[in-house]
């Protein structure tokens, strides 16, 4: 028997075992829906798993883990399928697909929400905003809650309410032995510690319970567009301002291109632009004195924002990052945003390969740093900023150019960085070194993963960024 015949034989055994035990759909290479089932948000990812188990609930996950334990294929776990590096899907192995598990339940009295692992932030926001409550989520509403939270989870409310992982109250997880466990501060606290920033490779998290905070349904946002030739002045002013603003705002600085929005004059579409943004995480009536300085850093080209519904604000960027586009993100954590760092960033942006690409500086600190360094696996507390280099394009012929721009820009900015890597913006495979991703948490994470998965069933998921 040849190697390919042996692999094929093993794959057929896995498919048959899943079909006899999983109630959800089991999709293999011969299925007409195979190409759609293996597709993830990032069109750059083109992996071909042997089988996809589309789980309908926790019981299906338990059966899929049991089959994986018996047959030992490479395993990946799909939540929303939105992670840039495409970790949701593997080549030739088994995808445990939770994307159909999207139920969300809000307890307004307890101010908690429990959401299944296939839910997106749009699903969560829709449910929680009925009660004027939020938990910090992503900046694109189609992002899945699972990978986002397990990797940390930065968003527009982070200085007021912390990262997504800081708002976790418990998780339900199926570990490698097929046991369903609840992990919280009281139950399996080691698993709970790991899930907050280092949760990949621990097992299959099937649901998340988050704390909720009063905000919305209407919020106040500053969204200021400045001419590109003011980038240096605006960036330096923005940096100085971030040291003074209260935790009720998590300001962002963006180098991008004017989007093709019908509300914006057509002659500006595609032009390079500087964007300064911030959402006030409090009573909109109190927002103006805090947000007004964001419009005083230069001579604005135009302004947006104002009062709008929180759920709509969270969906505003969705059209700029459509499913099927091609994406490659890398980032640095930065302590001190020096003039030289700003100048280097602007020089790198001037070589940007496509108008869809952008560079973003997110302000950290506040509630993020009020979580003790040893309280969770997330290791990057104390950094003042995250600088993200986000390449976006549609034409496969531009793959090398766009990825090359992001990599070279990341390299040029490395001297200004802390050396840490944010797992949710980790390129493809080049940023997977555990010391960079998990820092001082790496050794303890290895111990916990060895305790709950001694045979390495989820080893591939743990290694993949």
TrEMBL record:
Keyword annotations from UniProtKB, A to Z: FAD, Flavoprotein, Oxidoreductase
Organism: Pseudonocardia hierapolitana
GO-annotated molecular function: FAD binding; oxidoreductase activity
Cross-referenced Gene3D superfamilies: 3.30.465.10, 3.40.462.20, Uridine Diphospho-n-acetylenolpyruvylglucosamine Reductase, domain 2
UniProt xrefs under InterPro entries: BBE, FAD-bd_PCMH, FAD-bd_PCMH-like_sf, FAD-bd_PCMH_sub1, FAD-bd_PCMH_sub2, FAD-linked_Oxidoreductase, Oxid_FAD_bind_N, Oxy_OxRdtase_FAD_BS
Protein name (Swiss-Prot/TrEMBL): FAD/FMN-containing dehydrogenase
Cofactor(s) listed: FAD
Oxidoreductase is among the record's keywords: yes
Highest taxon listed in the record's lineage: Bacteria
FAD-binding PCMH-type domain ranges (all copies): 44-215
UniProt keyword Flavoprotein, yes or no: yes
Entry-linked Pfam families: BBE, FAD_binding_4
PROSITE patterns in alphabetical order: FAD_PCMH (PS51387), OX2_COVAL_FAD (PS00862)
Family listed: Belongs to the oxygen-dependent FAD-linked oxidoreductase family.
């Amino acid at each position: 028997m040849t190697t390919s015949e042996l692999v094929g034989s093993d794959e057929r055994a896995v498919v048959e075992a899943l079909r006899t035990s999983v109630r959800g759909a089991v999709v293999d290479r011969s299925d007409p829906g195979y190409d759609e089932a293996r597709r993830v948000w990032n069109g750059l990812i083109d992996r071909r798993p042997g089988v996809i188990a589309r789980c309908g609930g926790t019981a299906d996950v338990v059966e899929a883990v049991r089959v994986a334990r018996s047959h030992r294929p490479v395993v990946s776990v799909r939540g929303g399928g939105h992670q840039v590096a495409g970790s949701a899907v593997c080549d030739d192995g088994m995808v445990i697909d939770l994307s159909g598990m999207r139920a969300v339940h809000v307890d307004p009295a307890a101010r908690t929400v429990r959401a299944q692992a296939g839910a997106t932030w749009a699903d969560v926001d829709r449910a929680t905003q009925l009660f004027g409550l939020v938990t910090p989520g992503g900046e694109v509403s189609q992002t899945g809650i699972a990978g986002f939270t397990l990797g940390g989870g930065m968003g527009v409310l982070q200085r007021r309410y912390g990262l997504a992982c800081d708002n976790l109250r418990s998780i339900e997880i199926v570990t490698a032995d097929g046991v369903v466990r609840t992990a919280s501060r009281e139950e399996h606290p080691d698993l709970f510690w790991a899930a907050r920033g280092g949760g990949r490779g621990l097992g299959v998290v099937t649901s998340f319970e988050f704390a909720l905070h009063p905000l919305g349904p209407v919020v106040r946002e500053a969204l200021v567009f400045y001419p590109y030739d003011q980038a240096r002045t605006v960036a330096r002013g923005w940096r100085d301002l971030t040291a003074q603003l209260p935790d009720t705002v998590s300001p962002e600085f963006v180098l991008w291109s004017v989007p093709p929005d019908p509300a914006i004059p057509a002659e500006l579409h595609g032009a390079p632009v500087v964007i300064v943004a911030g959402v006030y995480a409090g009573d909109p009536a109190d927002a103006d004195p805090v947000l007004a300085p964001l419009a005083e850093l230069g001579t604005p080209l135009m302004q947006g924002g104002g009062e709008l519904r929180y759920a709509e604000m969270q969906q505003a960027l969705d059209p700029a990052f459509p499913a099927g586009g091609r994406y490659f993100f890398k980032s640095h954590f930065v302590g001190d945003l020096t003039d030289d760092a700003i100048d280097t960033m602007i020089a790198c942006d001037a070589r940007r390969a496509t108008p869809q690409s952008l560079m973003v500086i997110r302000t950290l600190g506040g509630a993020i740093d009020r979580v003790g360094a040893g309280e969770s696996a997330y290791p990057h507390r104390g950094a003042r900023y995250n600088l993200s280099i986000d390449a976006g394009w549609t034409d496969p012929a531009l793959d090398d150019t766009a990825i090359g721009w992001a990599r070279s820009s990341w390299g040029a900015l490395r001297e200004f960085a802390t050396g840490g890597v944010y797992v949710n913006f980790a390129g493809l495979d080049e940023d997977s070194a555990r010391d960079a991703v998990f820092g001082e948490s790496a050794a303890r994470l290895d111990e916990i993963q060895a305790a709950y998965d001694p045979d390495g069933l989820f080893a591939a998921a743990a290694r993949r960024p």
